[in-house]
Amino acid sequence: MIGIVMAGGKGTRMNLNNEKLLLVHKKPVILQVIESLKNSNRFSKILVITSPNSPKTKKLLQEKNIEIFNSSGIGYVEDLNSVLKIIDDDVLVTSGDLPLLDTETIQKITNLYDPQKIWTSILVTDKFLTSIGLNSDYFVNFKNQKCHYSGISLINSKKISLLDNLDENYIIINDKRIAFNLNTKQDYDLLSTT
User: For position 45, which CATH number holds?
Assistant: First the structure.
């Protein structure tokens, strides 16, 4: 399995002078995510997707000898599609802005991988998300409840050519370690209370 970390977004909702993946919660958030993947011992390779939107993040990763893939930075789907085109393996994709992500969580999620499913998105319920003081604009209705994407997916890239019209599978995991992603300044302020 290959671990992919998405780190090429603009982070415009944060209204920061610096890149959001360089925000520190014990260490830069992007390094926490990468360390969680590495320490899980589940991946033959870890690849971080950067773009022209994240030059300082890219520089930090290069200094740490972390393998990167340069994308266009047009958007999440386009950037992910560009890397999946060159991968013929099982894949875990995670957003780079999950400061509480840890090794145990990565191991739990990879244990749920079913290669018969082309794409499995990990969700959290709206009720859980609001209970920890967060909200998200991106949701899907699943099992008669409003759920939000965690930014983590399990993908059988051998079975896809484009990200259009995929049969998406869902798994709900109500855990703050995957629910807590940094989308706004308020999210970062709330992080200091965890």
Answer: 3.90.550.10
**109-135 pLDDT, tens digit each:** 999 999 999 999 999 999 999 998 888
Partners of 92 in beta bridges: 3, 154
CB 49 within 8 Å of CB 71: yes
Q: Is residue 132 within 8 Å of 179, Cβ to Cβ?
A: yes
pTM exceeds 0.85, yes or no: yes
Q: Which residues contact 10 (CB under 8 A, 6 or more apart)?
A: 53, 73
Report the number of distinct structural domains present in the chain: 1
Residue span of the structural domain in which 158 resides:
2-191
Sequence-separated (6 or more) residues with CB below 8 Å from residue 79: 6, 8, 49, 51, 71, 72, 73
pLDDT digits (tens, 9 = 90+) for 32-61: 999 999 999 999 999 999 989 889 999 999
Tally Cβ neighbours within 10 Å of residue 35.
15
